[in-house]
Amino acid sequence: MVLNEISLGQCADIVKDGDTIAVTGNGGGMLEPDAIFAALEARFLATGHPRNLTIIHALGVGDGESRGISRFAHKDMVRRVIGGHWSWSPRMQKLARENEIEAFTLPSGVISTLMRESGAGRPGLITHVGLGTFYDPREGGGAANAAARAAKPVSEIITIDGRDYIRYLPLRPDVAIVRGTYADEFGNISCAEEAGDLDIHAVALSAHNAGGKVLVQVRERRKSKDCHARLVQVPGIMVDYVALVPDQPQTHVGEYEACLAGLPGARAPTPEAFGGLSSPKGARAIIARRAADEIQGHKSVNFGFGIPGGIASILTEQGRMQDIWVTVEQGIHNGQLIDGALFGAAMFPKAIMRSTDQFDYYSGGGASIAFLGAGEIDAQGNVNVSQLGQDVVGPGGFVDISQGAKSVIFCGTFEASGLSIESANQSLKILQYGRIGKFVERVREVTFSGPNAAAIGKSVKYITERAVFQLTNNGIELIEIAPGVDLERDVLARMAFRPQISQTLGHMPLHCFGSAAGSPAQASDIKMRLNNA
Which residues are catalytic? Predict the structure, then answer.
């Protein structure tokens, strides 16, 4: 086998009408083969082909505007999308909302490991992940719009030894489009200088072993003698074509940073290089401080996207990060996590694993505690993060992580859109309520099943800036309120249901309302505003 190098235009010509395409990538541009995507988009806009494609992606891919999955978001170019997270492509969300495509959402770990299982010739993925949620075939099967509900389902329930499992049906991609840092003369692909490996091997395997083609975008060619064999992620025998893109960026932020790839001797970038490294402010700070208190003796910790991402900053300020082992679903272990657009990457990671291996760790119960966001919460303790407003969002790794972790802490503001608060003298004052309530009578889509978690005795808490709840066999119970708030006016009257109230109802710890993580508030008032949950 020798390297078969072709142009981006030739890559686009390989894709045929009706093909199923599996891709890799992550929000912020991690491992995103966007140059090939752009060539496909240009061909479609010029000729109307390829059309009626099926796109499969486990993680969110794009920049929220034109890159990534948005390259395919044209009427008639795509027929079906099976995606783990959709927020990085508002254009694709619009096609789903308008019923122009069959929109399926599945847990990210399910999609990644399903591609691996499909490539291995196994009968799909048989797993507990998704039971009791929107991804359970009995509860919607991930069909996120009318077109998907009228289409062929992607999963079914099977019973083994008297226990129900979901069998996610095999995927047989015609084309895989992935990215690496470099290829050698034999077509071996390495991600040595990327911010993650993600599911590149599983995506390539699923297409190659189904008789499909594997297209790879790389930054450069290298001689085999100059490469580390142990850093090859896709062996040349699985690679059909390679496109060289010398100006390929490491992420959407910019040029290659050795510290994101965990390379020896890497230097720290300038402080302005990445956002999301500063301490959380306002309501987010209160929530992060209270959530950090839950890490007592836990070693394996997962932080989700959004408000939970700020907990690491609080722990760093408290000098507690060295006491835990942090993972995120993209395969990163420890290091200085980056929140915001580059969530999933870290400066100076201590290990970078394939995301498929990471999801196996989560599914099997490896994480002792997980901190995740919450869009809606109902009386049964169900949580929705996957269907917000009118748009398909998808669960990302939320389902895989929340069902596997021994303890789960949901973190979010009590209300969304317009919430304004003031924290002073170790108490909380609500200046303006949010326009959108999060504690609803019934969540629109079950991304986390409270009853299922209660049935197995999982420890679950729900932390907001003004109240803390825990899951019981009878639904959620209020256990703490912020000092300074009125129980009836500021908490109970702002909920669509009345929760159980603990007989030992107390105040959230005073240090949560301080001017710095882990310290009391100063005498002077510190005004904190939050305009968006």
Answer: 329
- Spatial distance between the Cα atoms of 181 and 226, rounded to a whole number of angstroms: 14
Q: What is the pLDDT of residues 332-367, one digit of tens each?
A: 999 988 877 888 999 999 999 999 999 999 999 999
Antiparallel, parallel or unpaired: β 125-127 and 155-160: unpaired
CB contact at 8 A, 83 and 57: yes
Instruction: Give the span between the Cα atoms of 406 and 460, in whole angstroms.
Output: 9
207-222 core/surface letters (b: 16 or more CB in 10 A; e: else): bbebebbbbbbbbeeb
Give pLDDT tens digits for 395-420.
Answer: 999 999 999 999 999 999 999 999 99
User: How far apart, in whole angstroms, are the C-alpha atoms of residue 459 and residue 472?
Assistant: 9
Q: Give the torsion sign (CA, 114, 116, 118, 121).
A: negative
What is the token pair recorded at 421? 């608060």
Q: Determine the Cα–Cα distance for residues 427 and 393; give it in Å rounded to an integer.
A: 35
Side chain identity at 118, as an amino acid letter?
A: S
Count of positions (residues) in the chain: 533
- List C-alpha distances in Å: 376 to 176, 382, 383, 497: 35, 8, 6, 13
Question: Residue 173 burial (CB < 10 Å; 0-12/13-18/19+)?
Answer: buried
Contact between 59 and 33 under an 8 Å Cβ cutoff? The reply is: no
Rounded to a whole number of angstroms, the distance between the first and last alpha carbons of the chain is: 53
